[in-house]
Amino acid sequence: xxxxxxxxxxxxxxxxxxxxxxxxxxxxxxxxxxxxxxxxxxxxxxxxxxxxxxxxxxxxxxxxxxxxxxxxxxxxxxxxxxxxxxxxxxxxxxxxxxxxxxxxxxxxxxxxx
Amino acid sequence: xxxxxxxxxxxxxxxxxxxxxxxxxxxxxxxxxxxxxxxxxxxxxxxxxxxxxxxxxxxxxxxxxxxxxxxxxxxxxxxxxxxxxxxxxxxxxxxxxxxxxxxxxxxxxxxxxxxxxxxxxxxxxxxxxxxxxxxxxxxxxxxxxxxxxxxxxxxxxxxxxxxxxxxxxxxxxxxxxxxxxxxxxxxxxxxxxxxxxxxxxxxxxxxxxxxxxxxxxxxxxxxxxxxxxxxxxxxxxxxxxxxxxxxxxxxxxxxxxxxxxxxxxxxxxxxxxxxxxxxxxxxxxxxxxxxxxxxxxxxxxxxxxxxxxxxxxxxxxxxxxxxxxxxxxxxxxxxxxxxxxxxxxxxxxxxxxxxxxxxxxxxxxxxxxxxxxxxxxxxxxxxxxxxxxxxxxxxxxxxxxxxxxxxxxxxxxxxxxxxxxxxxxxxxxxxxxxxxxxxxxxxxxxxxxxxxxxxxxxxxxxxxxxxxxxxxxxxxxxxxxxxxxxxxxxxxxxxxxxxxxxxxxxxxxxxxxxxxxxxxxxxxxxxxxxxxxxxxxxxxxxxxxxxxxxxxxxxxxxxxxxxxxxxxxxxxxxxxxxxxxxxxxxxxxxxxxxxx
Amino acid sequence: xxxxxxxxxxxxxxxxxxxxxxxxxxxxxxxxxxxxxxxxxxxxxxxxxxxxxxxxxxxxxxxxxxxxxxxxxxxxxxxxxxxxxxxxxxxxxxxxxxxxxxxxxxxxxxxxxxxxxxxxxxxxxxxxxxxxxxxxxxxxxxxxxxxxxxxxxxxxxxxxxxxxxxxxxxxxxxxxxxxxxxxxxxxxxxxxxxxxxxxxxxxxxxxxxxxxxxxxxxxxxxxxxxxxxxxxxxxxxxxxxxxxxxxxxxxxxxxxxxxxxxxxxxxxxxxxxxxxxxxxxxxxxxxxxxxxxxxxxxxxxxxxxxxxxxxxxxxxxxxxxxxxxxxxxxxxxxxxxxxxxxxxxxxxxxxxxxxxxxxxxxxxxxxxxxxxxxxxxxxxxxxxxxxxxxxxxxxxxxxxxxxxxxxxxxxxxxxxxxxxxxxxxxxxxxxxxxxxxxxxxxxxxxxxxxxxxxxxxxxxxxxxxxxxxxxxxxxxxxxxxxxxxxxxxxxxxxxxxxxxxxxxxxxxxxxxxxxxxxxxxxxxxxxxxxxxxxxxxxxxxxxxxxxxxxxxxxxxxxxxxxxxxxxxxxxxxxxxxxxxxxxxxxxxxxxxxxxxx
Lengths: 113, 596, 597
Prior knowledge:
- The complex is a heterotrimer of chains A (about 110), B (about 600) and C (about 600).
- Chain B has about 600 residues and is α/β, with parallel strands linked by helices.
- Chain B is built from 19 helices and 17 strands.
- Chain C has four domains: about 90 residues, Glutaredoxin (3-Layer(aba) Sandwich); about 210 residues, NADH-ubiquinone oxidoreductase 51kDa subunit (Rossmann fold); about 90 residues, NADH-ubiquinone oxidoreductase 51kDa subunit, iron-sulphur binding domain (de novo design (two linked rop proteins), Up-down Bundle); about 55 residues, Alpha-Beta Plaits (2-Layer Sandwich).
- Chains A and C meet through helix 1, helix 2, strand 2 and strand 3 of A and helix 5, helix 6, helix 9 and strand 10 of C.
């Protein structure tokens, strides 16, 4: 049992070391239904932005979020704030989200589920 | 003896043994539950759903061929709901089946026909589209008619489980399910060994032998031909069944008379050639034994077995005897020795063989067996075809006066007669080999060790202090098992007999269909047919092949001696590996069975 | 919603309601109004959160503060201290570390997720499925560690039995019992199989479960292997799920690397490995004996049972075969306990079930709800009701093996028995909502066409019977129905149900028989009046130009057979003898002047 606790601690450490505790965590849904709706392009937009210097953001993928008619979905989670889930995210909207939400902290209401 | 349990069938209690299916228990008690796909020698399929019964506590109907009995089980076999369901199931089969009973080969002896009659199907409720397939006439021996197939799966199981050839399987799904060789190869190009067991177990006319009766009737009416016929040992032991007689009656004399009435000029006996084969083969064996030739030697009279060997065991080709089968030897000496003797142009001879075997049709067409530009046997008809021809010509085989075969290729020894039963070739060979080798008379010439229906039989005989170990296998599945033993340990046996059909030639693919109250390949039937041959052997005065005077004359006048150049030219042949589509050569297979 | 400073979730499940949760909430709302902060706060109600012994429950986000054991006097304190002063009330915070609760961390839209209880899908949409670290952080493989170090195989089986978990593949056989039968066999060589050959058209529960959280399936299987004494697990997954296969492969590699698969797992004597076997495009291979034959390399055809796979299965050895969702539940049962699990659901069906809600409903997707939730709750509550103002007609559950339930069954509490009694089945979880614009006869025909296509062809009733049913249904939808057709369908259907060899055949007539039972008038209209009230069967349709036609000629231009006539600015008309019912005119008209009659 100790072994598993140790493993868990190690895993959590690894995650944190990758920037989990940074202010913003962005999750893009990447199951088959989401990919079919275009989430790979959306993910690319975020990856691109990070490569170009967007800091303080931990980007990860997640599995099927269950909201099949509102895909692709992107979630932004910040400590101390209510998690925000965007639906029907296109690459253009993704860029908007980066500009307005991630950089300026504005939640774009119309796109929120 | 396990404790008996109580089950109730149709409200009456019965004491039965545990560990059996409902159908088995019911059969023993005299309730014959209708069935189609079930066969006691094959695995349980549960496909036709005709044998369904009601078991209290089960929501749905249960297949009685598969469901085991248990203490206290309450079964109903004949409720109104069941009868309707069974009737509907049979009607569904009929709705997807050609409506040509009158012109079908199995008219009068078709399991589907019998079931339909017993269900009392008068109106058709569910008619619709009917499946359409081309008949597969590509094989010399076995033809397929998928439109008549009811998908009972018996042929698939027979070909896979008992013969282990695995040629047939169901393919596709739903309405388009069809039984076919792999990749829908024509049968003639597939690994099919032409053994014809699929025909034996098929309840309808989906599998049939290739029919030559029309062609034969035409040729019988041709005055320019000299019509010569031979017939196998197993034919005389079984043809009576096609006329409604008990299995196991030897109809040799009546058959000869009928064939003469049919129009044949000369009626010879394949048993004569069987003696000839023993002369050649025993000599070949002794030569290998004494000069360090390849052992074990394997017999080669079974043509289905030969195709199986060439396809799956080409590495064992050197082990096989180079002798032709009795039928082919008979054909050869007919068109040479006999033709010369009677001063007939061999090209004017119509050489016909009545065989218990479908593979012989394939054999007769093999190019390697030709000599002087001619085929040894021109037409092969099965026991069934011959029976039909005799009936069609109005000849009363049952009551006709028996007659004798013609000389010089007609008389035979008892050793030749037992060729039809599994172990018979081995026994005949031992009788001659022993005496040729030791110079002494073999007193116990009935070799019990190689008789009977056990799949693989072993025996040994001491000849001049040397122990000769022999083995006998019948059915291609047993043959394959035996050959694996040979591959593991080539010194285990000296001499092996293999017959491609279960029971030996008496169970061949061309034998009469099972009677109404019997099942195909019933063991009792096979035993009775074999017994007829063993009785025939006992009744003969000459019981050893080398004592056959006409055979001796044949050597003196034509062949000179066994294994002479003349013998080699006409009575021996060669084999080579064949790889139809789907066979992966052995050296390219990996452990998991995939190809590299 | 983000204008709100706080989001409050009150548990509205039956357990909390018994503990006066509603009164607490009303008091709380009064407090909010008293302090005039009700605009700052968004209130959601959720279904049972699974903490019934500590109810009423209130979750405050952001921060996922979990309050429990609340009494009326606590409401003012929470409002004052936490919501206004920003300091959570620590004495009321409870520790509940249920495996499944993590989902609410990303509580995004409670309309959809509020009433759900995601146990099997607890990590889907939460973690990165390709990172074993995420799974470990969510207490992954803790159940395995507990089982291997603190429990005997017999204890594991007892726990699964006590939980009341039933097979989620559709048949609903008690899982613990199946494990017990397989464990009892004395053969040392046994197999564990995961049935991921999700063949139901439109079903994607298993796919999402594997794509979102492959490790939970692995963990469940390893625990299963330990319980029955097996060393080898096989996941049979359909080849049409390439992403799921890829994620599964990665998960297996990662698990092996971390020592959760292979020799001497976690340092114990237990060794277990899993390999993947791809399906080849046959729905029938979801049937357990056909699946086993497929793994063996033979044709995927079922065989009669007995013997059952637990006695003689893969290669003749005792085999334990369960569905993906069943396996996904196992780690939760081990960590959170069988007692807790068995308190969710109804008397006969414990736990939750994942449904793939699809069709004419506003919110489609995967919903996981406790057994006992009503159909109405799912369709109108979580699903958001029928869009475009249409009327609900029926809900189809269980895929091609299930039946169609009309409005009168909407208040059925979902569990295995109640759905069967209503004339359908639970199946693997497909739930398709049908509105007034769908023709029930065409729906039945669609499912029979599917089963006839997929029938393995072995047994006569299924192979031939479904073909004949399909022919009759096709005739009916083409306007060639004859009197007596319905009776023929019923006769054939009942026979096929009772006489077929395997579940595919036995359930193939269900859509037909249930639609006949519940919507017989539609069949009769098709046959006798040649009318399709949903206007879907094109052969029974007429296209008629209405009076509001302005004569623009758009329909005339698109008609492929020149069946439309009329002058400009005058009402056009369609010649019914020429009309081939392609519907182009209907689509082209911008004034909705063409009606389907």
